[in-house]
Design brief:
Layout: H1 3-21, H2 28-35, H3 39-46, H4 49-72, H5 78-95, H6 99-109, H7 111-118, H8 120-125, H9 128-138, H10 147-163, H11 165-171, H12 176-198
Helix pairs in contact: 1-2, 1-4, 2-3, 4-5, 5-10, 5-12, 6-7, 10-12
Length: 202
């Protein structure tokens, strides 16, 4: 059996099962069953459920984090960066809609490990974006705001939007197309609200 092919098959199965059931609700035998291999082979390649979990989780977030880092350290104005970062989060959750609830559950389960693996705050505070923010505040062009408040404003809304999707579909009696139209409108509303709050001058 090809090692690379087997490892990828296990990781794809693990992604599916972890997203559906979360870490606590997943067993290695569940992953092995979806992958179509025996549990012993799954353990042989990845040693433990926790090790496999973080490998899969890191791969799921790496692309989003890389894209975010490019914007944070790009040449754009801070206003344009805020727009792009919020849009990126909506696009990411739109393409990975089960991930919002999964992330919320795993943050609650192991917040310290989650913070260490993402390094979001460190990436944010060591970026060109953060320097632009500090300069804007010093020049009284941007309302004074801490990193935790700004990160919450930019990123929490898109995650909550998709975490609450099932309820929205029922409450407002809409379908997938209707929800996506609503989500796109929410992007623009969120961007406008945050920019209007942050920028003191136009």
């Amino acid at each position: 059996m090809n090692q690379v092919g087997t490892e990828e098959k296990i990781k794809e199965a693990a992604k599916q099962v972890f997203l559906e059931r979360g870490f606590d609700g997943t067993k290695m035998r569940d992953i092995a069953e979806v992958a179509g291999i025996n549990t012993a082979l799954t353990n042989y390649y990845f040693r433990s459920k926790e090790n496999l979990f973080w490998i899969v989780f890191d791969e799921m977030l790496r692309q989003s984090m890389d894209q975010m880092n490019q914007v944070l350290n790009g040449d754009q104005s801070i206003r344009e960066k805020i727009r792009q970062l919020i849009q990126q989060q909506y696009d990411f959750h739109s393409k990975n809609q089960m991930l919002a609830l999964f992330i919320m559950n795993e943050i609650r389960r192991d917040p310290e490990r989650f913070a260490q693996r993402t390094s979001l705050l460190e990436m944010f505070t060591h970026s060109v974006f953060f320097k632009q923010l500090e300069e804007g505040i010093a020049q009284k062009q941007i309302r004074p705001i801490s990193a935790d408040h700004l990160l919450g404003l930019m990123f929490a809304h898109s995650q909550q939007l998709y975490a609450g999707k099932a309820l929205h579909l029922v409450l407002f009696k809409t379908d997938e197309a209707g929800f996506e139209a609503y989500a796109k409108a929410q992007v623009e509303i969120a961007i406008d609200m945050i920019l209007c709050y942050l920028f003191i001058t136009n």
